[in-house]
Design brief:
Layout (H helix, E strand, L loop, with lengths): L6 H4 L52 H11 L11 H15 L5 H5 L6 H11 L9 H17 L20 E4 L3 E5 L5 E3 L11 H13 L9 H6 L3 H5 L5 H16 L14 E3 L5 E3 L6 H16 L7 H10 L6 H12 L12 H17 L7 H16 L1
Antiparallel strand pairs: 1-2, 2-3, 4-5
Helix pairs in contact: 3-5, 3-6, 6-7, 6-14, 7-12, 10-12, 12-14
GO molecular function: 3',5'-cyclic-nucleotide phosphodiesterase activity; metal ion binding
Protein name: PDEase domain-containing protein
Keywords: Hydrolase, Metal-binding
């Protein structure tokens, strides 16, 4: 397993450098897990003339076009750069909509799908449109590839589950490219069948964390590299002690957005009351026990603490460490640990790798694999990516 111990995870770097005037409050620790960091990126909606927050609505694609987008998302050769901005946003929403067809996912994470569209609009807003590579199109590309792998492993349903052609049919089963098999349960939701390999250890909360990491892994990217910012000794790089500064920025912004859009309960060290949108559209609190997966994690943490054993890590740790693993400067260290993990076997009925660390390694492997998947997506897509990267390397 590979984890990093920068400000996003262990706490903070203090603002003590005398050589510059910090844009951050003096004497206050800076942590990417703090939802109140005053970055120069606003996660708030721009105010209207009367001072009230502006609301952004995107028209839903017509049924025929929606079916077209669904068919595109179920292909490995997905090319988001050919889509309009609204279609890119719609595709991100469709992927989450398909994920919410998983039986028990909404209950396990304490989030309903109605919270996702405004969250995605806010995420897209903070991705810089002038960034030719690390933009929302790239985020969707990685997001779709991550989902594609989960689908083919039988952990998530195919996006075709949203197609009207699958509604009311005689078959209640959906085959994931002949590899995984899922079945519609009595609740009308998709249930995974037995999955092959270690990926089956992923729970619903882990799948949700991975999808959030995929769509937000480059949010707010300024278009500069970590190496450039370290050499230039930029304020952002100093804040994070020159350790994965960009990735820690992405974590900070992603976690702030989660707090803003009713997902903050997932980020608590001790998971607290999930937020649930009622029929009236207002956020209300429900009992902690109504989220079985989070409750089970907390009970395991509590039991481990009382017995003096190692406590399992939670949702925030998985999310943050998955994003931090996208820093390519730590890639070869990660590969070394992954090889050790891949060769680990069960001994005496006990895994050498704790389950939470195994889940993290799988999530990190999936997102890293998708960041390097361009050579396998076809010549046209790979060539476009290469042209953009060459252009960026010369700028």
């Amino acid at each position: 397993m590979y984890t990093q111990t920068g400000a996003a995870v262990e706490g903070a770097t203090s603002d003590t450098s005398p050589s510059h005037t910090s844009p951050y409050p003096a004497g206050r620790p800076h942590s990417a897990s703090d939802p109140h960091i005053p970055f120069a990126y606003s996660v708030d909606d721009l105010p209207q003339a009367n001072g009230t927050p502006a609301t952004y609505t995107s028209p839903a694609p017509n049924p025929v076009h929606r079916e077209h987008l669904i068919s595109l998302l179920d292909r490995w050769e997905f090319e988001p750069h050919k889509l309009s901005e609204e279609d890119v946003l719609a595709c991100a929403g469709l992927l989450f909509e398909a994920a919410f067809e998983i039986d028990g996912l909404q209950e396990d994470v304490g989030v309903c799908y109605d919270q996702i569209p405004p969250f995605l609009r806010a995420v897209r807003k903070i991705y810089r449109t002038q960034n030719q590579y690390h933009n929302f199109q790239h985020a969707l590309d990685v997001f779709q590839a991550v989902y594609w792998f989960l689908c083919r492993a039988g952990v998530a349903p195919p996006v075709q589950i949203l197609s009207k052609t699958n509604k009311g049919g005689s078959s209640s089963k959906f085959v994931n490219a002949g590899i995984g098999l899922g079945q519609m349960g009595a609740s009308g939701k998709w249930r995974r069948a037995k999955t092959q390999g270690r990926i089956g250890i992923l729970r619903n909360v882990d799948v949700f964390a991975l999808l959030l990491a995929a769509v937000g892994h480059d949010v707010g990217h300024p278009g500069l590299s970590n190496a450039f910012m370290t050499n230039a000794d930029t304020p952002l790089s100093r804040v994070f002690d020159h350790k994965s500064s960009l990735e820690q920025l992405h974590c900070a912004l992603l976690l702030r957005l989660m707090h803003k859009y009713g997902m903050g309960h997932l980020l608590m060290t001790r998971p607290s009351l999930p937020v649930k949108t009622t029929s009236g559209g207002k956020a209300g609190l429900v009992s902690y026990a109504s989220s079985p997966s989070l409750n089970a994690t907390y009970q395991q943490q509590k039991s481990s603490a009382e017995s003096g054993l190692r406590q399992p890590h939670g949702f925030r740790w998985l999310l943050v460490q998955t994003v931090l693993a996208t820093d390519m400067s730590v890639h070869f260290d990660w590969i070394k640990r992954f090889k050790e993990y891949a060769t680990s076997d069960s001994s005496g009925g006990l895994r050498k790798v704790p389950e939470d660390e195994e889940r993290l390694m799988i999530c990190q492997a999936l997102i890293k694999l998708d960041l390097m998947e361009y050579p396998s997506t076809g010549l046209a897509s790979c060539s476009k990516s290469g042209r953009v990267r060459r252009r960026l390397s010369k700028s």
